[in-house]
Every structure is written in C-alpha cells, then in structure tokens.
C-alpha cells in the first residue's frame, strides 16, 4: 500500500501562500513521513517550490473565478489516484472545497468560508478576532477551537546561492555590490502604494550614502508604469535605478530578493517573500494594519503613521488625500533603512 499524502489547496495571493508555510511546518511534525503536495495557481506555484516541506506542486488547470464543475470533477478523479489522507483548503470559496470532496479525500479541513458544511468535515470558524494571517492558517493544524494558535514559527523560504547568482547575472545586477530592492506595487489597489516620488527620493539618499550600491525595482507587469515613473524621477537627480517590474518570472524575483542587502516594500506579496527569506525588510503600511501581516525577518521594521482614518482597508483613499502614505516621507524611511544597510 502506498504512503498516504497530504494535499494543501493554495490561496490565490502570493503573500497568503507565504504566510501559510508555518502550517506545513506543523503538519510535517505531526506526520514526518507523509509527503505534502500543494495545488496552486500558476502565479503562486513558484513560492511553494521554495518551501522545503513541499514534495510536489500541482498547478491548477482552472480559470480564475469560474466554477467549471465538469473540469473540477475530472481533476478530482486524478487526485483520487494519488492517495490523499487529508486536504487543507486555504481559500474560503466553495468551489475549492468541492475538489477534495469530489476526490473522496477522507479528512477535509478548512474554515467555514462560503457555508461549506459537508464539503469540509473538520470545520474551523473564521470569525475569531484578531486574526493575524500566519496564526490563522497555522490553526488549521489543530482541532477546531475558539482561539488561534500562539507562538507559531515564522514563514521560511529557501533559495540556493547559485540561484541568486544566476538571477543577478541574468538581469544585469553586479555580484558583490550592495543591492537594495524596492517593491513599489500592490495588487490590492493604489491606496497601498507609497508615492513614486518618495521611492525616487529614497533611492537618491541610498546612492548619496553609498555610490557603489544598486537599487532595483521588482513587480508584476501591472507595476511597470509606476516603476517607470520612479526611474524617471530618479534619473532627473542623476540616480540610476533598474526597473525589473514585469521582466522577471516569480521564481527569478524570489532568487533576486534572496540576494538583497535590504528590501523596501509596500504591504504586498513581495514583502512577505523577503521576510520569509530573512532579508532586512522595511515594510510601509498605509490603509492596512501592520499587525495583520507583519514581516518576520531578524531585521525588520514596519512603518505606519497610524492616522485616525487608518486602517481603512480600502483600495483607494476614500478621503482623497492619501495622507497615510504621502505624509510618510522618504527621510522618515531612510532614517530606519540606513542602520539596516550599515
């Protein structure tokens, strides 16, 4: 008889996938010999491949947002042949809970989400305040209860030195020279973005202090425009900044971050990747709560003005002034970043 396996159904967001990694640490301790597979969207799969607890990453064949009931039934029959003993459904939607149920996986674990009674048979409730995301996912390793697990280990990703060196060489970054990565994007909305002019001013501060440093911008193709704005503003001050937004695959971005001397990021997936790689991280928060998903690096700082109107958790500033980000100046960020680079 083959060894039973565990299936993790991944969230659709990069940051959430990173913050779910401590759950895998706990499951590995509970069943040391049980392989863990992850079913993940293509955009998130590279993050799971950087987790040492993962045996196989299966890429979802479904369109985003579509029910595709026939396709889910067919894929569930493929999963049935892999011999899963349990499945942990991390998204809160009904359609993802259908998959392990259709596959006949005996133990199906997750939060109630979209009224998933029956589809999940170890049902946790998601109305426990407060809910920092690392503890929220890690609690699924326990029996359902009215509080989140405390003292959870931090998320950890692993990248080899060869991978980092290859990524630097591929994207024109010089080995041996200091590298500061900026992540100016945010998939959630413009409210989470520190202004481009502030990023450009911070690049100027870095280069004035250390002319040998390299500053590079990371992000998705959607972030290319704001990154071009930063490059143009920096160029006006005779500061060279490399724009890699949209030019790297996610696994390459992970490898580049692993080699960074520091990372300055909005509240985004790349922030959580940098934290899980234990890089020095400076995280900038405006409309979101730093306590909800903070960085866990040995050297990390969360910056928030904590205005009366924050955290509003809105995609765009509902008051129109974006003061939570605009008033967080480049000088304030440089004051915290400089000791990290020293």
TrEMBL record:
One Gene Ontology cellular component term attached to this UniProt record is: cytosol
Query: Do you know which InterPro entries this protein is assigned to?
Result: Glyco_trans_9 (IPR002201), LPS_LOS_Heptosyltrfase (IPR051199), RfaF (IPR011910)
What keywords does the record list, in alphabetical order? Glycosyltransferase, Transferase
Q: Biological process GO annotation list?
A: lipopolysaccharide core region biosynthetic process
Catalysed reactions, semicolon-separated: an L-alpha-D-Hep-(1->5)-[alpha-Kdo-(2->4)]-alpha-Kdo-(2->6)-lipid A + ADP-L-glycero-beta-D-manno-heptose = an L-alpha-D-Hep-(1->3)-L-alpha-D-Hep-(1->5)-[alpha-Kdo-(2->4)]-alpha-Kdo-(2->6)-lipid A + ADP + H(+)
Origin: domain of life = Bacteria
Q: Does the keyword Glycosyltransferase apply?
A: yes
- Give the EC number(s) under which this enzyme is classified: 2.4.99.24
Gene3D superfamilies attached here? Glycogen Phosphorylase B (3.40.50.2000)
Q: Which GO terms describe its molecular function?
A: ADP-heptose-lipopolysaccharide heptosyltransferase activity
Instruction: Give the family, as the similarity comment puts it.
Output: Belongs to the glycosyltransferase 9 family.
Q: What PANTHER family does the database record attribute to this sequence? A: ADP-HEPTOSE--LPS HEPTOSYLTRANSFERASE 2, TETRAACYLDISACCHARIDE 4'-KINASE-RELATED
Q: What name is this protein filed under?
A: lipopolysaccharide heptosyltransferase II
Source organism of this protein record: Massilia cavernae
Source species taxonomy: Bacteria, Pseudomonadati, Pseudomonadota, Betaproteobacteria, Burkholderiales
